[in-house]
């Protein structure tokens, strides 16, 4: 039986083909390669609870967000969220390791803008206890939306839940109980972030 990451990528390829983007996918597939073992080990060291399916996905494509493969820069829509027709990039293992939680996010977690920002009750309100893995940015370089795996939920949440940040209006919401469930959601939604418009992204 194929692992979830392989099944996800196989379905993604089909979605690209169905909109007539065979050339774009084939070029992408011939360019990418998996993350180095040392990068995956470093990522696991930082996030011991990292899901196997994310590691498997990185073993296929080590990022699509400005990732340079043998001198070729790749910006390729690879993921989605619960927002229809809204594509995201996959960060590389190195980018995930280097990412730091932004001050603005800490302020949101501490509920400093509680009257203005909607925050899911399953998300902690203790910024000093946060352990979030930032794994994806939306197509406009993350300015509008980012995705995280949350290893430090509130008592109402689940460790490993996937959180979506959305800007204007700002909100933080849990979109899946796990990374596996997140990938399954994208598959069940028939990769609805892959549309003909994506060819212009």
Shape: globular
Residue stretches low in confidence (pLDDT < 50, at least 5 long) are none
Radius of gyration: 16 Å
Beta fraction: 15-25%
Alpha carbon gap, first and last residue: 34 Å
Number of strands: 8
| Oligomeric grouping of the chains | single chain
Structural class: alpha+beta
**Major pleated sheet:** 6 strands, mixed
Count of helical segments? 7
Characterization of the model:
- This protein has 201 residues and is α+β, with helices and mostly antiparallel strands.
- The protein contains seven helices and eight strands.
- Helix 1 (4-18) packs across helix 4 (52-60) and helix 1 (4-18) packs parallel to helix 7.
- The termini are far apart.
- The mean pLDDT is 93.
Short description:
The protein has 201 residues and is α+β, with helices and mostly antiparallel strands. It has seven helices and eight strands.
């Amino acid at each position: 039986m194929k692992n979830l990451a392989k099944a996800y990528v196989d379905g993604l390829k089909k979605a690209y083909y169905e909109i007539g983007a065979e050339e774009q996918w084939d070029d992408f597939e011939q360019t990418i390669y998996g993350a180095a073992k040392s990068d995956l080990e470093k990522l696991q060291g930082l996030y011991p609870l990292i899901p196997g399916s994310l590691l498997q996905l990185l073993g296929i494509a080590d990022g699509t967000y400005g990732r340079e493969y043998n001198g070729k820069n790749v910006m390729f829509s690879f993921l989605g969220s619960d927002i229809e027709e809204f594509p995201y990039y996959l960060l590389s293992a190195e980018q995930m390791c280097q990412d730091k939680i932004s001050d603005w996010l800490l302020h949101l977690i501490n509920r400093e803008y509680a009257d203005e920002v909607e925050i899911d009750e399953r998300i902690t309100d203790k910024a000093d206890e946060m352990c979030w893995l930032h794994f994806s940015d939306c197509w406009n370089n993350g300015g509008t939306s980012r995705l995280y795996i949350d290893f430090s939920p509130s008592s109402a949440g689940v460790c490993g839940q996937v959180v979506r940040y959305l800007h204007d209006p700002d909100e933080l919401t849990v979109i899946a109980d796990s990374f596996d469930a997140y990938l399954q959601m994208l598959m069940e939604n028939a990769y609805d972030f892959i549309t003909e418009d994506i060819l212009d992204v």
